[in-house]
Amino acid sequence: MSVVKVQSVSKWFPRRDGESLHVLQNIDLDVPEKAIVAIVGASGCGKSTLLNIIAGLVTPDRGCVFLNGVKASAFEDWRSLTYMFQEDRLLPWRTATQNVAFGLEAAGVARPERRERVTETLALVGLSGFADAYPHELSGGMRSRVALARSLVTRPQILLMDEPFSKLDPSIRTQMHDEVLRIKELMGMTIVFVTHDVEEAVVLADKVVVLNPRPGRVRETQEIRLPYPRDPLSPDVAEQARLLRRSL
Fold first, then answer.
1. Domain limits of the chain?
2. Does the predicted TM-score (pTM) go above 0.90?
3. Which of helix, strand or coil describes residue 171?
4. End-to-end CA distance of the chain, in Å?
5. Backbone angles phi, psi at 222, to 5 degrees
6. Beta carbons of 201 and 208 less than 8 angstroms apart
7. What is the assigned CATH class of domain 2-245?
8. Which residues are CB-neighbours of 17 under 8 A, at least 6 positions away?
9. Beta partners for 2?
10. What is the pLDDT of residues 141-187, one digit of tens each?
11. Residues 200-232, buried b or exposed e (16+ Cβ, 10 A)?
């Protein structure tokens, strides 16, 4: 079953000179239930635009997106989908607890349930001891964990990530990869993420979709059949990354 299905999607953006920039062309993408799919490609190939279309933040000019078999324009259960951005976007005047609770507040979840779910989710990402800390009191890795917790507290079925770990040191990034894989198994999520980092795609994904610019179009799709966990320094990961890099 495809949890996310992108069918013949194309997108143009207007330019100041009155012309249109063709960003995506006839994109087809199938994401099976509980799979992890990476979207890679050179800068400007439309990776983030494609993710935003899946998230319902941008409307395609042609084609359509299906979520759980329902056309996105008719999809109602948007709480089952969450988006982790490249920037952590934490509110500096809110503690870790208050930042994680933000989406639940907006959804009208009652205070006792909010408190319980936030506490559980902070524990899930290993931040129970920092519930009352403000963003400026946290390291970069901790801030990423708070952002991840904020995405997970709604108990999503689909997690979208736009290069969320790109600014972290390699060792911290590896820790976050392990956390994502661990939590994905616990929650049974489907994950679609964008990355420039080929090794990151190989370490995390079951399937990697390579986009060519411009306009962005699918060049090829590679299945990653290595067993988890995947050591980013292992010869198998290095060889798979080498093969993938040849497609870029």
1. 2-245
2. yes
3. helix
4. 29
5. -115, 130
6. yes
7. alpha beta
8. none
9. 32
10. 899 999 999 999 989 999 999 998 888 888 888 888 999 999 999 99
11. bbbbbbbbbbbbbeebbbbeeebebeeeeebeb
